[in-house]
Design a protein that fits this description.
Two copies of one chain form a homodimer. Helices cover 46% and strands 17% of the residues of chain A. The first copy, chain A, is an alpha+beta fold. The first copy, chain A, folds into three domains: 75 residues, Winged helix-like DNA-binding domain superfamily/Winged helix DNA-binding domain (Arc Repressor Mutant, subunit A), CATH 1.10.10; 166 residues, GAF domain (Beta-Lactamase, 2-Layer Sandwich); 92 residues, Enolase-like, domain 1 (2-Layer Sandwich), CATH 3.30.390.60. Chain A has a five-stranded antiparallel sheet, with helices on both faces. In chain A, a hairpin with a 4-residue loop joins strand 5 and strand 6. In chain A, helix 1 crosses helix 4. Chain A starts with a helix and ends in an 11-residue tail after the last helix. At the A-B interface, strand 4, strand 5, strand 6 and helix 11 of A face strand 4, strand 5, strand 6 and helix 11 of B. The structure holds a DNA duplex (30 and 30 nucleotides).
DNA sequence: TGTTAGCACTCTCATCTCATAAGTGCTAAT
DNA sequence: ATTAGCACTTATGAGATGAGAGTGCTAACA
């Protein structure tokens, strides 16, 4: 059976209506509010047919219809009409990003918080992978107790640090020399490269072999995302959505978002080509819980990867709104980053500027 | 009216029973399980009297009695019998702390997680105040774009970093000189001291005046606790306690713990003299929500402040268990820190080793 | 052949009643 | 001071009931 235009229209109405009201949609309400000119019986026939096609389900015989995950997917692909943000919302974004501080961490927090506020869903964010970054600066600082502090900064100003052990006989001056040497060696290299050239690097080193190997170990550990790299904003927002009046759903949700590892799995694994990615519960993605949807966007601007952001919430999510917000935030970020680059050196490129 | 011994005994039974079962306690159950030898009518009289004294309340006339916050306070002060941890639990603590990594951050996470696991409540932790620490190392690292990265490490290995602006004409060598100079100047100073001596320090500086003032600004900002300094572990644990079958309570709880600022207020403001601190809802402490209790312990060992840890949960909390766990974790921490110091240099002191 | 009116059927939901069980407060006896 | 006994209160759960919503089906219609 094919999808006639009227079927599509009706499906769109059902999804729109259900997103807005959270109430199963009846044939009557469709003819009354949206599709005047046909009788409810006609709509009823179409609904039955859409149900057969797998787009709609009923909880019980007299309960109206509810979109299936498949329907949401189709809706997002073909039916959804994206809106525009209100002036107020646009202002809000601008306001939030106008902060003077250039700090990546603060920016990430702002972005995450803006998304959560504007969409009214819980927002998740993961900072860009250090893996792809190049090392801008690497230093070893003395601690004075047989350890040194390794600090690295990458091209995108991501910082990592750890304590490493140094030989007993190494004094502060030696350490400084080692620091300069190792720092110079790694400057400009990508973290991912370190692993590849590990043997070569190690073999080249006599004097600072031990320190060197500790540094490499540390660098290797930086490629894994840390708990702190995953940000969760506004978990309490779920209470604004009626599906979370059921304690079981809350329990499930809270359990999922409590595990940073789990969260990372959920928002990771993006296809870089696609800018906005929607995962709808029980879509075969085992990481996303059955009754949740996750919409994420990976931002990059001026050749910089700025992380992946998104919202997690019920399957009955306001996709048009969420996607609109994510797009607008993306634009704002882009102009922020480009604008800033222009102010300084205009070293922006277009290498990785999403499709 | 005074509290007879029998009244105390009965109050203790009621609180114990209610903590264990979450069911209002009846006169009958008391005489049957705990106080054989008296009739339920006698107990009933005592209960009525305890109610008059403000220790007990009833939801409705045939519903048994429930302890009031006042009763919990009295219970903790006078009636409670602390248990011992099981072998299994003790092993668990030891296991968790045997991690090789000496990193403060990991330690804090372990502690928080252990507390949450053993008590079955949500655990909160706040890292020690950088304010009281002395600066062990301060360095300025070049970024290459008109900024420098300031990194400090304190005596307790707390790290802070920020980007500061440097003058246009300052090259990497100048920066290194400035770094050494400023680093030397602040080494051994407490962060709190910086503020006091600010004017003097600034006036002494000609050449690096601007950098210096940026550094001081940054140092001042380190005294405020950051979001990352507040750790929340196991929020989903609340679902193991029947009071959180009510969605309103969950909502309230989640809203409170979602705000790091709020959390900080709740577990801050400890009296340093008291090692374990119990705040019971509606106790006049406006930060703690009405239907929550917070039990915290501030740990210090070998002269080091190791942060404040605790649990947040329903007023009907298993205080004996929680307090026992907190005490045992404290002991384990102490022996860990002392042990470690012995291994190395035995530079431990007894300056601040809580009573 | 597609559309529609009409109607029986199903299911939920709120309300009511009713009986039961639990627990208390009070009184009078010990 | 304690206790047995009993009336009183309230929660809880199990039907029963009726209203309301929505559907599926059938037969008539354009």
């Amino acid at each position: 059976m094919k999808m006639s235009d009227r079927k599509k229209k009706i499906l769109q109405i059902v999804v729109d209506e259900y997103i807005n009201t959270a109430v199963p949609v009846s044939s009557k309400s469709i003819t009354e509010k949206h599709l005047t000119g046909v009788s409810s019986a006609t709509v009823r026939n179409e609904l039955a047919s859409l149900e057969e096609l797998g787009y709609l389900t009923q909880f019980h015989t007299s309960g109206g219809r509810v979109p299936s995950p498949q329907a949401y997917r189709f809706y997002i692909e073909e039916l959804m009409q994206k809106g525009n943000l209100s002036e107020k919302d646009l202002d809000y974004i601008e306001q939030a990003f106008s902060d003077k501080s250039h700090d990546v961490e603060h920016l990430i927090k702002s972005v995450s918080s803006v998304i959560s506020e504007l969409t009214d869903y819980t927002s998740v964010a993961i900072t860009p992978h250090a893996d792809e970054e190049t090392i801008r600066n690497l230093s070893l600082l003395p601690c004075g107790d047989g350890n040194a502090l390794l600090v690295i900064m990458t091209s995108e100003r991501i910082l990592r640090d750890s304590f490493i052990e140094i030989p007993e006989n190494m004094n502060d001056e030696d350490l400084e020399k080692a620091s300069k040497m190792i720092g110079g060696l790694f400057a400009g290299k990508a973290l991912a490269e370190v692993r590849e050239t590990e043997e070569q690097i190690l073999s080249d080193f006599g004097q600072y072999r031990q320190v060197m190997s500790e540094v490499i170990e540390a660098l290797k550990s930086y490629t894994r995302p840390r708990d702190e790299d995953i940000l969760l904003t506004g978990p309490e927002k779920i209470f604004n959505h009626p599906e979370y009046e059921d304690i079981e759903n809350v329990k499930n949700f809270l359990t999922v978002i409590s595990s940073k590892d789990r969260l990372a799995d959920i928002i990771e694994g993006e296809d870089d080509e696609i800018q906005i990615n929607v995962k709808i519960g029980s879509s075969g993605d085992k990481d996303v819980p059955d009754d949740c949807s996750v919409v994420t966007a990976t931002y990059s601007a001026g050749g910089k990867n700025l992380g992946t952001y998104g919202v997690i919430g019920p399957i009955r999510m306001d996709y048009p709104k969420v996607i609109t917000v994510l797009e607008n935030v993306g634009k704002a970020l882009e102009s922020l980053v480009n604008g800033k680059n222009k102010d300084k050196k205009d070293n922006s490129g277009n290498e990785r500027k999403g499709k």
